[in-house]
Amino acid sequence: MNSNVYINHPLRFACDKFLIRHKPKTQRQWLQELLIMPDVDLEIDSFGTGPALELLESKMAKLLGKPRALFLHKGMIGQLCALKYHADTSGCNTIAIHPQSHIQVDELQAYHELLRLNAHFFGTLNKPFTLGDIHQLPSNLAAVCLELPTRHAGFQLPQWQDLETLNRHSKQNGYALHFDGARLFESAPYWNKSYQAITHLADSVYVSLYKSLGAMAGGIIAGDEHFIESLSPWKSRFGGDVNTVFPYVLSALWGIENYLPHIPDYCLRAKQLSQLLTEVFGQQAVPFEVQTNGFVLQLPIEKFFLDRAVLRYADKHKTWLFDKILDGPKRTSRVEIQVGNALNEWSDQEVVEALHCVISMAGEIKK
């Protein structure tokens, strides 16, 4: 088990109250939910075709303002396919990515190990890209792959004007702009832009189906007709042709109807909660501007002791607070708050009280 990540810890499965993301479902709850879906009686999909799957792809293409959308059971596969397409089309094997981007930090550099693509790092640590970063981009690129927001940089987003400038710069220099929009829906409220206005700036876009949309798994790659058709060989080569994916598809359709409309509310709640946390714990408690439903919280206790306190709190209160704990500066810890429907069971003051309690527990453990 990764020492920073506790999402599969046995104590988590014994909890009945959760602070972050959507409240997790049991296998029985998933099955019960799928059984009442209006699309459950549609013909089952097989190896990439079927009415429910086509309905999902059609809905996502319309939401994202692109001619076509393609479902993949694993977003990583879709993004590798997209980057391979842009590399082959351009004749260049270099992509520009943020040094803290998901495909750099979490995928073991699959873009290089599997596709032999090289990375030009675009932007600096713990910051979104700037106009200066754009002007330092090399002219010979296959694509800029931009994560919106950059989770490991504190869920930060670039300014809208900078995004428009990057779009113009990519066109002028003949490289593609790909949005790793795993949390694209959660980014739109910050800019006060429609999903279509955002994705219009990109040649291709990825969105996750299992984050704020709450599907079992899966993602969508969207773009023009030729782009989507060209992904088919690499989808097969990366193992993307699955016998049937109907549980993923039905749960994604449920999420579009039931979670997507509430994402602006989750973003607003994150902003409000973060403001209270800075009042209680000081400005240093929220080190980055809150721009989406996710933000970084810095707590005044070392990771070693907070680790143990969070597990002790879960055991005592049957309440799960954090899935990941990282070292912060000067004997602090950093955790992620990602607002989903789980927070509906909490008042903001109850969150503060839980944090005070776990910090106190950590202090006792430290003694």
From TrEMBL:
GO annotation (BP), single: glycine biosynthetic process
Subunit structure: Homotetramer.
Recorded family membership: Belongs to the threonine aldolase family.
Gene Ontology terms, MF aspect: L-allo-threonine aldolase activity
Assigned GO CC terms: cytosol
EC number: 4.1.2.5
Listed Pfam families: Beta_elim_lyase
Lyase recorded as keyword: yes
Domain Aromatic amino acid beta-eliminating lyase/threonine aldolase: 45-295
InterPro entries: ArAA_b-elim_lyase/Thr_aldolase, PyrdxlP-dep_Trfase, PyrdxlP-dep_Trfase_major, PyrdxlP-dep_Trfase_small
UniProt keyword annotations, A-Z: Lyase, Pyridoxal phosphate
Entry protein name: Threonine aldolase
Cofactor dependency: pyridoxal 5'-phosphate
